[in-house]
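Handout, section 4.2: multi-component inputs.
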Amino acid sequence: AQTVTQSQPEMSVQEAETVTLSCTYDTSESDYYLFWYKQPPSRQMILVIRQEAYKQQNATENRFSVNFQKAAKSFSLKISDSQLGDAAMYFCVFIYGGATNKLIFGTGTLLAVQP
Amino acid sequence: ETGVTQTPRHLVMGMTNKKSLKCEQHLGHNAMYWYKQSAKKPLELMFVYNFKEQTENNSVPSRFSPECPNSSHLFLHLHTLQPEDSALYLCASSQRVAETQYFGPGTRLLVL
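Output:
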């Protein structure tokens, strides 16, 4: 069975600094998708970044980048130049769209950004 | 952001009431989802619809009844709920299952 683990319930970063959120997963599948979503206090779930497992290149979206280590089943999110608006709950998500669809959210990491 | 809308945004109901949550997506997507988000618990996938057909029911109690009349609309009919069903209910859609999901703002439900 697939699992997603976020081992850091809470993290804190100074404004303009860099922070890395960790995520590990377990699966026997080879073709899947990984996502990071953020959920600010408004509770609106917002896509941060997406990674296809078949792609070796790490995805990047402006200040957000991932370190995808397929063999190690690791998918960490790096936020550079942190801003106050980055404060949110961050969820790591595994999606497999095979014969039986699997969509699994991690437990989340609450990120605080200190001014 | 008006891609995925949910109504109502807040709902208070008694355990004997019947109510419905509505989700509408304006993105031309073919897959829609219901999630439950409770405090201190991981996000729980409840139902998945793909081209109006239910493809997943994650052992959800029968007091929750989904309905997908077309690819743009998804309902969650509620009846005889329990206080532990109080949560934020999120709707999402995607072009296809296993692709990027876009979420609505959620309905915050309180069962008294």
